[in-house]
Amino acid sequence: MKKSILKAALLAVIAAPLFNACEMDQLPTTSIPNEGSWVTFADATKFNTTIKAELKGLATQGYYYSDYFVDYYQPALGFGNRNGTEYSWQFSSTTTAGYWSSNYNYIVQANNYINNADAVAATMSPDDYPLSAHPTEQFQADSATMHQYKAEAHLMRAWAYYNMALRFCKDYEPATAASDLGLPLVTEVDVTAKPARSSLQATLDFINADLNTALAEVQETEPSGDVVSVQVINALRARVALWSHDYATAYAAATSVINDGNFALVNNAADLLDMFSNNTGSELLFTPFAGPDERSSWDGTVQAYNSSVQAYSPDMIPAKSTIDAYEAGDIRLQTWFMDADVNENDFLASGVKLLKKYPNNAALARQGDSPYACYNQPSAFRVAEMYLIAAEAAYLNGDAANAQKYLNDLRTARNTSTSTKTGSGLFDDIKLEWKREMIGEGQRLFCLKRWHDGFTRNPAAQAANVIYQTSPELFIGATISADNYRWVWEIPSNDLETNQNLVGNW
User: Fold this and answer.
1) Most Cβ neighbours (<10 Å): which of 138, 326, 362, 504?
2) Are 33 and 5 in contact, with CB atoms under 8 Å apart?
3) pTM strictly above 0.90
4) pLDDT per position as a tens digit, 44-66
5) Residues 478, 89: contact at Cβ < 8 Å?
């Protein structure tokens, strides 16, 4: 069925935070009817509403989905193989196709905006405000807003391409990036185009060009909620630079956010709980807006209260090794996990720690909600991540002193012992802190890929009687080597079949 790009992109937003192969029918097959739609500042504002909606979908895209691929969890007895192909590393392009189509929908939306906004800006003048008491001032204000709109579109395109590169390309290595396969770089809204893949170097250059433009155009310097600010763009730049081994830029971008003065690490359990339950606090850089009519639930796979048995029946339970990674006094252990009664196919266990990093936000409540609901809107960027990026980038750039400083600043705030290690031991501690801090935020899979580290799951369970024990070599005891080809996801077969210019990964 033919659908406009706008409609396809909006459907992709509705599907967030998790995507599946059904999204393949959302690929655009018609063009946006732009004639007569891009004339005035009001037109640009209407299209920017769509950009903001798409940013919300992008920010929460498959948020903790990729955590199921790694070593955080064990499947419970009743998990029914939900996310089982991902967990067992038997997944195919059908499993992950939604990321490809959804991100290209974001890119198409950004292209539509970028390619039309300048024409509107070029025709704007004070004469457009005959009813305003101060037409020149109003013109200047709207012109500045147009720059902000453009920054948001460029940020969205860079972010979408970065997310795709993490999944559908090899890890970036400077020595081979010019020959490694990157992504099809699309700048026009042309549904008949069949672009070939660029090099990974060209993909990085494209992302960085968008980030440069976003920084040049952005008007917001005070971060707040879902505002795209200088700090948000620098946070994405820090991620991109760390991925691309540009450690000096990663360190500079991350520390610019840390030293900005608008942020501070949370250092007590009450404030840490409040930050994740109310989606406010001194650590948050960018939290997409949500209300009672625009909310997402974050409990199903990792909590899932079963009222019929008056116990929790989640699909995934944190492995004992995950819980053991935290020190007893760590405020993250106190606030991000709960002790629960678990019932899996009538097998019972008490005191099992389940992830509750995203508790219910009362501001999103509707009448009749379950008391066990977990409606939440996580922050896409937190300053804690910037400390981790600064520590890793400093270490890899030969600056052990600052690597230890930023690592220990975060550890001290979380009431965890500081690291006194040097050399590879210091890097091991940085890696461990990434694992502890970013659980439930979809980062570990890509950290392991960046480090070229495989992993072996520890089969030890919090409560073995409620854990799925069959085929441990595929599930709770699996070893995934660093050279497993599935670290690079395959391009959807539909795209490979319809676009002969594409080269697959597998």
Assistant:
1) 326
2) no
3) yes
4) 999 999 999 999 888 876 767 89
5) yes
